[in-house]
């Protein structure tokens, strides 16, 4: 009888650990274009830490690149860019929806020829700000990674081609 109780307790612990481990799966952030980040399709309802951000909820337009993640560091891509892009970023604090990020570490992202590259030839800054949202316009050409080097909160970056750019 003692062996049966031990086996049952061990099975319960393994089942509990499996349930806890699975709860963090399927975060819904994309780290490669093959997973659909640069396709024209919306790809279903957003899930995970960035799902509440407006940049993630809005349908993707043709040619847009949309990446999101739970925090830094993170590398997305590579993607092929040609021309000028409007870059918008957004970050959110799941524990404080009113967070302004003014007293937080700046969110920093670059487009770069190599994964995890933050400086050197061909690197273009996409964002560097301690605030909830930001927008800039940049010129990007070639096969580039979108590298997020700093950011403690869930984020989204949307790169939209500028028509005629």
Description:
This protein has helices at residues 2-22, 54-57; strands at residues 65-69, 74-91, 107-112, 124-129, 133-150, 155-161. The chain is an alpha+beta fold and 165 residues long. It has one domain (26-161): Jelly Rolls (Sandwich). The chain has a six-stranded antiparallel sheet. It is globular. The protein starts with a helix and ends with a strand.
How many strands appear in the DSSP assignment?
Answer: 6
Rough outline: globular
CATH-derived architecture: Sandwich
Strand portion: 35-45%
Q: DSSP helix count?
A: 2
**Number of structural units classed as domains:** 1
Rg (C-alpha, Å): 19 Å
Approximately how much helix is present in the residues?
10-25%
CATH class descriptor name: Mainly Beta
How do the strands and helices of this protein lay out in sequence?
Blueprint: H1 2-22, H2 54-57, E1 65-69, E2 74-91, E3 107-112, E4 124-129, E5 133-150, E6 155-161
Biased composition (Low complexity): 25-40
Keywords: Signal
Signal peptide: 1-24
What is the gist of this entry?
With 165 residues, this protein is of the alpha+beta class. It has two helices and six strands; from the N terminus they run ααββββββ.
Write out key terms for the chains shown.
single chain, 165 residues, alpha+beta, Jelly Rolls, 2 helices, 6 strands, globular, disordered N terminus, Lipoprotein, signal
